[in-house]
Amino acid sequence: RIGRVQESCREETDGSPRRSSRQVSDEILAAGTLAEAVKILEQYADECIRDNESRQQGSAGRYVSRALDFIEQNYTSPQIGIREVCRYLGLSPSYFSSLIKSETGETFVELLNRRRIEYAKELLERTSLRTYEVAEKAGFGDAHYFGTAFKKATGMTPGAYSRRSAAEASA
Fold this sequence. Notes:
Elements: H1 2-10, H2 21-30, H3 34-74, H4 82-89, H5 93-104, H6 108-126, H7 131-138, H8 143-154, H9 158-170
Helix pairs in contact: 1-3, 2-3, 3-4, 3-5, 6-7, 6-9, 7-8
């Protein structure tokens, strides 16, 4: 753990040089009491931890951005799932799940389904495809699940949405 703290303290996060471990060692040796030496070491550790957390928060946004790009490029594939995204990002599913939820307020499945349903709505408005065909094209492997997710998101079934869109277009 101390090694990780030292490693993170060697790096710069904001362009300003951080105290080196050599400088901290010199300060500790110059301390008048053991309590002062411990305080210097604790301050240094706190600085390193804060800098490391700051760096991780910045990377969280980049991971989420990359995940959203991946979803945008692959949402029509029924095989896309959290494992594929995590493999792409090099993250564990549990860490990614907490990251995506904390950054977006939505779960991975909610984000993916929302994008798929947006596309399904476009298809229902512009084509005469059957519901199961729209489900397939939007990336839902199961037409029944698509119907359930669609109704949950829009408040109406895909068929009702399609009929309403057709009526609005002809009016």
